[in-house]
Amino acid sequence: MIQNAWLIPVFPLIAFLILLFFGRFLKEKASYVGIAALALSFIVSVLVLFERIGGETYKFVIEWITFGESAITMGYEVTALNAMMLIVVTLVSLVVHIFSREYMHDDNRIHVFYSYLGLFSFSMLGLVLAPNVLQLFIFWELVGLCSFLLVGFWYFKPEAAAAAKKAFLTTRIGDVGLLLGLVILFNQTGSFDYGVIYAAVENGLINDTLITATALLIFLGAVGKSAQFPLHVWLPDAMEGPTPVSALIHAATMVAAGVYLVGVMYPLFLASSTAMTVVAYTGAITAFFAATMALVMTDIKRVLAYSTISQLGFMILALGTAGYVAGLFHLMTHAFFKALLFLGAGSVIFAVHHRQDIRDMGGLWSKMKITSVTFLIGALAIAGVFPLAGFWSKEEILASALLNGDGFLFAIALITAFMTAFYMFRLFFKTFTGEYRGGDHDDPHADDPQVDAYGAADVAEADNPRDDSMDKEAHVPPAEDHDHHHSPEENSGFMTLPLIVLASLAVVAGLVNLPFMGHPLEGFLTEGLNLGAQPHGALWLAILSLVVAGSGIALAWAMYYKGAIAEDFFAKKAPGVHNLLLNKYYLDEIYTAVFVRPTVAIGRFFWEMDKSIVDGIVNLIGRSTSSTGRSFGRRHNGQLQTYGLVSILGGIVVIALAFVLRGYFG
Amino acid sequence: MTAFDANWSLMTPEIVLAALALLVFTIDFMTGIHGKKPFIGRLSVLSLLVTAVLVVVTNSTSGSIAEVFVVDPFAMVFKLIILIGVAMVILISMNFLDRERNAEVYQGEYYSIMLFAALGAMIMVSSADLITLFIGLEILSISSYVLAGFKKYSRPSTEAAIKYVVLGGTASAFILYGMSFLYGLTGSTSLLEIGQAVPMLFEEYTFVVMMSFLFMLAGFGFKISIVPFHMWAPDVYEGAPTPVTAFLSVVSKLAGFGIILRVFFLGFGGVFQEWAFIIAVIAAITMIAGNFIALTQTNVKRLMAYSGIAQAGYLLVPVATVIGDVGINMIVFYSVAYLMMTLGAFAVITLVTEDTGTSDLSSFAGLYQRAPYLAIAMTVFLVSLAGLPLTAGFIGKAYIFFGAVAGEMLWLAIIMIVTSVISFFYYFGFIKQMFMTDPRPNDKELAVSGSMQTVVTVSLAVTVILGILPGLVLDIFNTFNWMAFF
């Protein structure tokens, strides 16, 4: 079966093509096409994984193009790492496909939605199967494009359109680095093949400066894609997309591609201690800052978005401290429990008529049994409670930070773990316990269609009246006109089955790398790779991490369930910090001021040069010659002589500069 | 060797095209000067395709006429680019001229002058002699001046023509002046002889040789609109009839690159190291200025002018970094990609701006609802111009980028890729209008004529196919000894 691994991305591609051409006629039946395709992909992935476990890496390539003397190949490769990734991607994609059938049921563009999902699954699987970094880059861009399409799926919401653009353009900044890095590698090694690049690094064919430079450039790509500081700003906004998309793309798969990239290029990173340090600190800083922002957000999806950024930071931190298996293990477990949490959030949002503000929720425990229990499992898993999946993988990351990092990294990781437990349980208690605050009577926003349509959105924006979007009322996404006046109740099996599947995985996924079973995943992933010993923590570390998680949960319990500490206790104590967090450290504003405005200003500057400065020069020099100018040009438009003169002046300047610079006068 | 001994059959395509252009002219006279003449348009397209076939057939006997007019793979590929480009421009024009508001244009003349422009460009890329080259250049240029002013009752159009003729004349003067230095030094107008003499002459007459080079660079730079010789482009592009804008930004520009390669690689190839850096600096400035200014534009035709300036900057990168066959590979591949994505975009632009009567960016509002196929095709063209994977534009740009890195001009490669990212912003402006804005109240579903459909579909197919299977043409290019005659 491993020879037929190419089938895995092809099924979703076929689904995409079918829906592209016949989707209009299928309407909501489009979902079955997508589900069937992904089910097939998943089955093949499982078969491939089993074959890979007992066997060897399989690689198939054909020559694509020749650039100069180097042939560039295209094909596919099944390694241990990507066999694992195939399972993660196809499984999460499959459950998201199933979940969306109900979630997007009332949207009359549901076939378009499924076609995009198909295209995304194809691209993501293509990325994973790529045997060389150029092919990876091509699919890398393609998943970015799909993310753009899906974030902007409800493009008639101005926020969604803006978020889609922001997501795409921000990640492009990282892609500049990635492309540059891989072209330099190509220039050094004559190949994009992972194997050739590994060998070149190991045999010292590339000098140290270039190794560091290319590793950092490639890492820049990962920073953009995996929403690491300082390029993380696009991910929270990307929550404007439909929730199943957030689960699939912005939690489990695409955003993990940056981590995967560092994973596949690991020998390059290992060869440069500078690069490793940068990676570790970027991860730690991201994990910490994102977690702080998650503490105060009130939009259920934004809390999860910052949590995702934070957890991706954990993975990057692990990779940066030589915890290759720890980082990738966490990638896998996180994919399951974060997809679970997002789909759980989707289930909640769907039940409370598309509100997203946790202040309007509460008391859902008794109303939505399956959603509540599965969400709790997800929350326990991400908090790192024994014996759920997150416990095992997070413990390895802590071990990695402690043993190969330094005290600072370890401390940051511990604090972040504490915050993780706290904000997750803040979210859980606010949403599922207490009284339901979203009833039509007591909800102050109940009659405001804007809040209904768009969800109450995040706090930073909730204070501003959404006048800018008022005229868009007519475009309320159809899915959101769902039975308006009923109290929330559990959703149908299409939505709960995926939750159950993912919850089971959130419980058991950690078993694949159990310490007392000899770390089977570690053996699988590191076989044949020269990565050195993987760090493992002692028992006290496991207990410490449990204590940290437990105290985070306890604090949340005291504040949001028991009420022993007032909810706004910290906000009142340190209003400045609270505000800073609510406004996301003002990074959006800073970026606008530092990058966006100057870019436009430079454009205007050049344009003004074209138009007016040049005009001024001409007026100065050319007044005496304007008699000829008056004969035709100037009467209609004063620009003609200007252009002529500038062309000539330009010519003279170029000539003069060239001569001065190159010294041709001598 | 007298003129009669020469192998005139090498010139068959040009002779046939000249005859067909005259035939089009004559038929136009016979059918009265006014009115719609779609059949002349079709005849013109047919003429170009026949010529294209002849170009391929003739190439099997590569050689030259007295080392003045050469037939080699380089000439063949550029001629095919020119002929296909002009054929597509004529298909776009047929739709354009059908409209009531463009009834003032004398259609027969328009088409035959288009054919003469193609003829001039063909002679230009086939010449290995400064005089022939200049004659080809002038046939192309003068035809272009006339075409820019074809809407003679429209003030922007006539203004565009006047600006173009005056500034174009200046550029020609630059070129001639530069050529005169070479002639003075070598006593020859043959690029072959000049190329042999230049390295030695450079030692002794550095100043004069570089003067000659820089004057020609300024003149050619005008034709391909690179900074600082670009100022005419936005005004002329905006004023000229839209299909003529398409012609100027694609056919005229690529033909200009054709002669730049001939003259610089053959005539000055021996002193490549001396001028590569100058070209690199100009390429950098062109990419920066073109992309940044495009950010501020809201008129579609002006925006495309600045985008075209930026694209010329990308095309100039291999001229500065990789000399010889590989460099030509890169330029030719990107030229093919540029031809298709730009003409495809201009076909859509023509349709939309003519339909809405404005060339403001807002004319694209809600295009996806008015004409989904056009909107999707346009997106592919824009994405390709911006250089995203799975399009011809990506492969072309990546190839050039590899060359710049391999040629040890990392800074130029970085400028190239960073300015490409900036270009996303303005290309996204289109996409946002098309997909994320509602159509303006009076805009109905957009009718697409057969000729337009052809152009859009062909451009789309080639842009995507070359993005996925670039080997289809790159493998052929790799076998070429481009300037085989030498």
UniProtKB/TrEMBL annotation, chain A:
One of its GO terms (biological process) is electron transport coupled proton transport. The keyword Disulfide bond does not apply. It comes from the Bacteria. Pfam families: Proton_antipo_M, Proton_antipo_N. It comes from Salipaludibacillus aurantiacus. This is NADH-quinone oxidoreductase subunit L. It is found in: Cell membrane; Membrane. One of its GO terms (cellular component) is plasma membrane. Residues 64-114 form the NADH-Ubiquinone oxidoreductase (complex I) chain 5 N-terminal domain. The keyword Amino-acid biosynthesis does not apply. Keywords: Membrane, Transmembrane, Transmembrane helix. It is a multi-pass membrane protein. Coiled coil: none annotated. Belongs to the CPA3 antiporters (TC 2.A.63) subunit A family. Residues 130-420 form the NADH:quinone oxidoreductase/Mrp antiporter transmembrane domain. The chain crosses the membrane at residues 6-23, 30-50, 80-100, 112-130, 136-156, 206-224, 245-269, 275-296, 303-329, 335-352, 373-392, 407-429, 494-517, 537-560, 643-665. One of its GO terms (molecular function) is NADH dehydrogenase activity. Residues 462-489 are annotated as: Disordered. Residues 463-489 have a biased composition (Basic and acidic residues).
From TrEMBL, chain B:
Pfam families: Proton_antipo_M. GO terms for cellular component: plasma membrane. It is found in: Cell membrane; Membrane. It is an enzyme of class 7 (translocase). The chain crosses the membrane at residues 6-27, 39-57, 77-97, 109-125, 131-150, 162-185, 205-232, 244-269, 275-296, 303-324, 330-352, 373-395, 410-431, 452-473. Its EC number is 7.1.1.-. Keywords: Cell membrane, Membrane, NAD, Quinone, Translocase, Transmembrane, Transmembrane helix, Transport. It catalyses: a quinone + NADH + 5 H(+)(in) = a quinol + NAD(+) + 4 H(+)(out). It is a multi-pass membrane protein. GO terms for biological process: ATP synthesis coupled electron transport. Residues 127-423 form the NADH:quinone oxidoreductase/Mrp antiporter transmembrane domain. InterPro entries: NADH-Q_OxRdtase_suN/2, ND/Mrp_TM. GO terms for molecular function: NADH dehydrogenase (quinone) (non-electrogenic) activity; NADH dehydrogenase (ubiquinone) activity; quinone binding. NDH-1 shuttles electrons from NADH, via FMN and iron-sulfur (Fe-S) centers, to quinones in the respiratory chain. The immediate electron acceptor for the enzyme in this species is believed to be a menaquinone. Couples the redox reaction to proton translocation (for every two electrons transferred, four hydrogen ions are translocated across the cytoplasmic membrane), and thus conserves the redox energy in a proton gradient. NDH-1 is composed of 14 different subunits. Subunits NuoA, H, J, K, L, M, N constitute the membrane sector of the complex. Belongs to the complex I subunit 2 family. This is NADH-quinone oxidoreductase subunit N. The lineage of its organism: Bacteria, Bacillati, Bacillota, Bacilli, Bacillales.
